[in-house]
Structures are given as C-alpha cells and as structure tokens.
Design a protein that fits this description.
Number of strands: 44
Largest sheet: 9 strands, antiparallel
Number of helices: 26
Radius of gyration: 32 Å
Helix content: 25-40%
Distance between the termini: 61 Å
Strand content: 25-35%
Length: 857
C-alpha cells in the first residue's frame, strides 16, 4: 500500500514538473513575441518588467456571486478555465465555481485567490448524517428541514424520503458527503473484451474503490465504452438509464456488438420508464446523459395563447420558452377536474398534490408543501389534486372601454351577427331582461360611434334590438372572433379582452353572467351564482378572467340528448368566492344582485407552494381516448406553466423530483456518464448527488493522447433564410458523410424534400433511426441526435437551426465529431445576421475549449 502511494506521488510530481516547465516556456515565448511586436510598432514606453509580471498572472478574478467567480483573460493569452460566459473583442470572460475544483485542476494562483471555504466534514451513511461530536449542533441548525432526530453525539437520523435532497444541499454547500463503498470481489468477473486507455483504467480503479462515480469526460473520450466495460465486469442484473429513445437504441446496439453474452443481464430504459424498473434490484445502474393543441396557456403578462400557437422566446407564467415541439399520437388522457378539462399524453408530467389519509382517525392529513409532486398523466388517480393559482397576472395593453366590452360580452353570449350582412342584433324573452339589454346595447354601439338602431317585438313576443354597421361587424368578428350565424359552441375570448383594463374586464364578466347566469340559494342556505355555455373554450377563459380578481370557480358538464343539442358547460361560484364576486360587480341584470352573503371559507383547499398561493382542484375523472391528433409541449425557465389554468410541467428537462425518483432505484453500485458537469439551469448539485465521486479529464490531455479529433470550425453569417438555403446547397455539393442539424421540423422537411435526403426526427420509428444515420451519406436530424449519437465515419456537421443561445446544445453537436475517425472533421454553422447578434453566446462552447472559429461573411 505504501509503495503504491509513493509511486502515485512520484508520478504526480513528475507531471507537475512537466506542467511548470511548459508554462514557463510558454510565458517566455509570449513575452519575447510581445517585446518583438512592440519594437516593430515603435512602442517604446512599455514597462517590460510589468509585462513579465502580467504574464505570471494574466487574468483578473472578480466575484460573481457566492462561491462563483469571473476569470477575465486577454484573448491573446492561451488560457482557458471553467465556463466561457461572455467575450469582448479583447477579452474572454470565464466563470468558475466550487464544483470545478472537484473535476479539473485549478491553477494554483487562482486557488489561492478564491479561497473556497473548507467544507464541513459531513457524511451520509444508511439514512444518517454523520457529523462528529463537535459539529452535530451546527448540522442540526443548518439542515433541520431534512433531519428527523439526533442520535448519540455524532449523528442525526434523516427524514424518510429526504436523503437525496440533503445530499444535494450538502453538495451545494461544497461538501461531498459520500463514503466509499468498495466493489466486493464476488461481484466482479474476469473479462478483457475491451482494452481500456490509461485514464479509463484510472476511472475503473476509482470505481472499484468507491462503488459510485460520476465520469465527466469530453465527447469522444470513450464514456460509453467505459460504461460497457463496467456492465461486462460487474455480475448480476444491470440497468442503463438514458434521456432519449435514440440513445436507448444506440446502447442496445452497442451491448449487442461488444457484450452480447451479457445482454440478458441488462435493462435499458429512458428516464420516463422509471415505474417499469422502480421495484427491481440491480447490481449496477448507469445514468447516461405532452398536451393537445387547443390547451390554453397563460402568459406572464396575463394574456392567453393556445399551445399549438406557442413560439420561442414567448414569456409565460413559468418563464421564457427555450423551445417548443409537436408530435403525432393516437392515445390521449382526458382529465376532468372540478376546475377544468385537460387533454394530455400519458407521459406528460403534471404538478399535483396526492392527499394522505389518517386511517386511525379516519380523516385527511392537512396538506403541505411536502405533498406536492410531479406525476405523469398515466400515473394520476381520481382524487389527486391539480394546483390552480389563486390569481393570474394582469397587464393593460388595449383601450376598450367598459361600455364597449359589456356590449361585446352581450353579443358573444346572447347576440347574433347575420351571415353575409352587416346586421348585429339581440333578441330576448326572459322577463325583466328588456331594460338592461336595451341599455347595454345602446350605450355599447354609441361607444363604437354607431348612433342608429332599431327595436321591435317579433311574432313570438321576443324583444329585438339591432343595428347595421359594417365597421362594428368587422370589429366583432376580427378583433373579438365572434362568428357570424350560429355560434353557440364556437365563441371564444381573445386577448383583446384579457389585455383590457380591469374595469373593462369586469364589465365583460357582468354581461356574460347577466346574459347566461342565474343565482340560486341551495338547500343548506348557501348562495351560488351560475353561468352556462356550450363552448368549453369560452367557459375556460371566463374562469381565467375571474382569476384576475382572485375568484375561483367550479366546472361541471351536462350532456344533453338530441343531435341539435351540444354539451352544456356550467361554472358555479360559491362560498366566499361568491361574496367576492358580488362585492366586485353590480350586475346589469338586477335579479342577480342579492344582499345575502355566505359564511365559512373559500372554495377548495388552499396551499402555499414556492411562495405562491394555490387552490387544490380535485381530479374527478380520467379517461383514455384513442384518437389520432397532434400534441404540443415547450420548455420554460422554471419548467412549469399554466395549462387550462392548472400548473403543469414540461417534458424536456428533468425536474428535481425526477432526480429524486432515480436516486431511489435499488442498486448496489452507480456510474454516471456526462460530457460536462455544468448545467445551464445551474443545478449541478443534482448531477453530483445522483452519481457519486466525480472524475474529470481536460481537453488538452485528450488531444495530446490523440483520443479525440479537433474539428475545424467555420461560421457563415448570411443575410436571411434564403441565403442560408443557398449556402447549404453549395456545401452539400461536396460529397462527405454529413449530419445537418435542424431544430425546426418544418424547415427540416423542406431541406429533406429539396435535396432528396432523409430526415430523422421525433416521428421516425425508434428502430429505424440509427440504421438511417449509419447508411446515409447525408441526413437531416432534429434534436433527437443531439446526445450520444456516435458515427465513426462522420466528416461534417452543419447546423442550420438551433436552440437559441444554448451552449449545452452546441457542445453536444460538435461532440458528434469527436467520435469521428476521419483526419479533419469539419463543424459548420450557418446563422443569419439577426441570429448571430441574438444567439452568438452558443459559440462560447467552442471558444472555451480553446478552439478557433473562422467567421465568413
């Protein structure tokens, strides 16, 4: 053992001496070149001693936030460290944090300056936080919400289900709380089917000593082969968990190619298949790196949009979209709650509360934040609760007056626009309605500049009032989308209403309830106000308008018999929400204005979660519907948004709850594989918590060992999309193995059709994807090929459409070339001027590794 340590120390010192000699030689070379250039430029007033001092420490270190720093370096200095966040014409601005030191060796000068605090020596073992006698109280105070009780003087029992969250928090605080659990000899089999490189051998030795490691190697460094080696050497049942179906196919192909004799021991699943494997016991786990179109999404400023119309960069309740996608499906889950109806794919995640029952006292436990979870639609149960915000935001952008919107509400609910004529009219026969309808109609048309109207009583005894105005008809049909002719199930509420002043929105709500509402005193003496409509879309959006005032409503359905009768959607408002509405609005229809008020509480239970108040709405019915349709989803900065008023989650990023679920997989040993330990959402602690002891390897070492190829990078900046197509056409005349990355499905299909090459995207059958990629000289690919796709004969990557400024995607894409066996692989990006200005930060993924980009305009 001592001899091993001595050899290891000698090897480290030898490498250190080599690095020091290289740095000194490079410093001297740069100094001499600078002096020579300065002489040539006739600049004589440069202090050469200061210049040499500068080269000893050629960077500026500035705190960014707690335990995170900017490292600012002149571009002419070949110095790269951490994450390149920004660049100017003269400087590269890197960011380093406390995690960086665990993976890559920081320069000594930086280590001394940043002075990362010594982490507390805490360890998590078998459900306990081991603190030592001196720090037990410190740990209890700092991590109390994760802890159950103190036991003895040097450890604390962790609350059930909180171990992973505690580990993530300790990592966030700079502590690696893992305890090595060496791999037992009886779990290892002899096998030498894959020859490991030197750094892979070091990783294997680390795994044998620790039993849980996170491998952070650059693309092309052999992470997958290392994973296959581990699968072969460890006996027993194994599991590989991947993010995409494409990666699942690739892992299965590699298992068949390299270790077919052990394929019966290995399961390969995506993250979404957690429920299929959660009850299995594994010797080893390796972690390798939707909604229907009519769903209404709430925007951050209080407007609304149907999900099929979502575009990138739009800001929602939940943050800015990073990308959107659509796909075909033939199975939908229709989920009816007491607030809304939501149609979704089986694997779309939703944010819910699952209430817990106290069986001993035969009552429900009080709901708190701990009961909130992310759950796939297929795993929802009747009785689960969606979260509906107490209030949605509001921004005034339109200038419609209360008189105008009261009139619009009247026409939408009780009026009629004649087809192919400029006639707008209302006919009513309900007792007591003539007065208020006449008043609202006349004031309304006057507010739009129309003075003439006519009124009469028809043969059936209905009171009819109307006017003729082409201008007013155009406003009603174009701005407010009120259809001509029969409209009952077609009416909608547009952003013209949602962006009006709150007083004008109140007038619109008044007209809706005055037209189609009624008040009833129930048998128990409580009051409710009702509204009915045959348009589900209109009903949902009226509920959202009420939410601007913090008023909650219930939704029920009434199916009516007969071909000419549509389903009736009814909302009712009771309890204290009834009081709130009656105090807010004095209805035009006098019979709705009653003095009686309710006692007690608001409708539905309330919950404070993440600092916001929500109402819990119970899921009443879950139905499967087999129907061919298109579903949509998008990502936001928080990975959450409001769909038909209910808080839901996007599919594209793993929420913390998913990491928690994965951490509960029953496995004796764990290995994580990733091209980078950095996440653009800043949640690196979750990656470390899931995997184990981190192992890194820098680019310079890989390039020196000739493990990866260094691509040539070229950026074409063009005027517009037409020129982008022309440039692509020129490039494709050169016949080499090419992947054309295109995030836009529409554009991808156009490229495929125009150049007669296949397009691999979400709808391409899983079993065909890798076969097409291997057998085609040129392929258009969507994001399905971003991660993990390895093609040894690839010579060129061309990017024509991409995920905004995402550096993570950029590094994944040029990482495909790191697997190439060709001598000079080429990475080409085609951007319009507008894209270059907006999204050039994605290029930092290339610059931060010390690579150069040739820019062609």
């Amino acid at each position: 053992m001592i001899e091993e340590i001595r050899k290891s120390l000698e090897e480290s010192l030898r490498k250190l001496d080599e690095y020091i000699a290289k740095i000194q030689a490079e410093r001297e070379r740069i100094a001499e070149e600078l002096e020579k250039k300065l002489e040539e430029l006739k600049v004589f007033n440069v202090d050469k001693e200061k210049l040499r001092d500068f080269l000893k420490e050629p960077f500026v270190l500035i705190p960014k936030r707690k335990e995170e720093w900017y490292v600012i370096v002149p571009k002419f200095i070949p110095f790269h460290v951490g994450w390149l966040e920004h660049e100017t014409k003269s400087y590269n601005i890197f960011v380093i944090n406390k995690y960086f030191q665990w993976i890559y060796e920081l320069p000594e000068a930086i280590k001394k300056r940043i002075k990362i605090p010594e982490p507390l020596p805490f360890k998590v073992i078998d459900g306990y936080l081991h603190t030592g006698t001196k720090l037990q109280e410190v740990a209890w105070e700092r991590y109390k919400k994760f802890l159950y009780r103190k036991e003895g003087k040097d450890r604390i029992k962790i609350k059930k289900g909180y171990e992973f969250l505690l580990i993530a928090k300790l990592i966030e605080d700079g502590c690696l709380p893992f305890v090595p659990q060496p791999v037992e000899e009886e779990d290892i089999r002899e096998w030498d089917g894959i020859k490991l490189r030197s750094y892979q051998k070091r990783a294997w030795e680390k795994f044998l000593k620790c039993g849980a490691i996170g491998v952070y190697w650059a693309f092309g460094a052999g992470k997958s082969l290392f994973g296959l080696y581990c699968l072969a050497r460890i006996k027993g049942r194994k599991l590989v968990v991947v993010p995409t179906l494409t990666l699942k196919s690739q892992w299965m192909e590699r298992i068949e190619k390299y270790i077919p004799e052990y394929k019966h021991e290995i399961d390969v699943v995506t993250y979404l298949a957690y429920d299929k494997v959660k009850d299995n016991n594994y010797a080893l786990v390796i972690f390798d790196e939707c909604l229907t179109g009519d769903t209404t999404i709430v925007l951050e400023d209080g407007g609304i949009k149907e999900i099929k119309d979502i575009k990138r960069d739009k800001v929602f309740e939940g943050g800015k979209t990073s990308f959107e996608f659509s796909r075909k499906t033939n199975l939908i889950y229709k989920i009816r709650s007491d607030f809304s109806i939501l149609k979704t794919t089986p694997t779309h995640p939703h944010i819910i509360v699952r209430k817990r029952r106290d069986k001993h006292n035969n009552q429900w436990f009080k709901v708190n934040e701990k009961d909130v979870r992310v759950c796939f639609a297929k795993d929802l149960k009747e009785g689960d609760c969606f979260l509906v915000p107490e209030k949605i935001p509001h921004t005034t952008k339109t200038k419609w007056t209360p008189e105008q919107l009261r009139f619009v509400g009247l026409i939408a609910c009780d009026g009629h626009i004649e087809k192919n004529k400029n006639v707008i009219k209302v006919a009513v026969k309900k007792k007591g309605e003539k007065e208020w309808v006449r008043d609202v109609f006349i004031k309304g048309i006057n507010s739009f500049g129309v003075k003439k109207y006519w009124e009469f009583t028809n043969k059936r005894g209905d009171y009819v009032i109307g006017c003729s105005s082409k201008k007013l008809k155009n406003i009603l049909t174009n701005k407010f989308k009120i259809p001509e002719g029969k409209k009952a199930e077609k009416i909608d509420i547009t952003n013209e209403v949602f962006y009006s002043s709150l007083n004008s929105i109140k007038a619109f709500i008044d007209a809706c309830f005055s037209s189609e509402g009624w008040v009833r005193i129930e048998n128990n003496g409580s009051c409710r106000i009702y509204f009915s409509c045959t348009s589900l879309k209109f009903t949902h959006k009226l509920q959202l308008l009420l939410k601007k005032f913090g008023i909650h409503s219930w939704l029920t359905m009434k199916k009516r018999s007969g071909n000419n009768h549509h389903t009736l959607y009814i909302i009712h408002i009771g309890n204290k929400d009834f009081n709130k509405l009656m105090d807010l609005i004095k209805f035009s229809r006098k019979s709705l204005n009653i003095e009686k008020r309710n006692k007690g509480k608001f409708q539905n239970d309330e919950l404070i979660w993440n600092g916001k108040k929500y109402r819990l709405v119970k899921i009443l019915e879950i139905k499967k519907e087999k129907i061919d349709t298109t579903v949509y989803d998008f990502s936001t900065e928080t990975h959450m948004f409001l769909a038909n008023g209910c808080l839901t989650h996007n599919c594209q990023h793993l929420p913390a709850n998913t990491y928690i679920r994965l951490s509960t997989l029953k496995a004796k040993y764990r290995v994580g594989l990733s091209g980078s330990p950095f996440r653009e959402d800043g949640r690196e602690n979750l990656i470390f918590a899931l995997t184990g002891f981190p192992i890194g390897l820098n680019w310079e070492e890989l390039i020196k060992l000739k493990v990866v190829k260094v691509p040539r990078f070229k950026l074409y900046v063009v005027r517009d999309y037409h020129e982008k197509f022309r440039r692509l056409e020129e490039l494709l005349k050169i016949p080499v193995k090419t992947l054309i990355f295109c995030d836009s499905i529409k554009l991808g299909k156009q490229i495929s059709s125009r150049f007669g090459i296949p397009f691999v995207y979400g709808e391409t059958p899983e079993r065909e994807r890798m076969e097409i990629l291997r057998n085609s000289d040129m392929v258009v690919v969507s994001r399905v090929a971003d991660e993990g796709v390895s093609l040894p004969d690839i010579e060129r990557v061309i990017e024509v459409a991409f995920l905004f400024g995402s550096r993570q995607q950029e590094s994944q894409r040029f990482g495909r070339l790191m697997h190439s066996l060709k001598e000079e692989p080429e990475h080409i990006i085609i951007m319009t001027e507008k894209e270059f200005q907006a999204y050039q930060k994605r290029l930092y993924a290339i610059y931060e590794r010390g690579f150069r980009i040739e820019i062609v305009r």
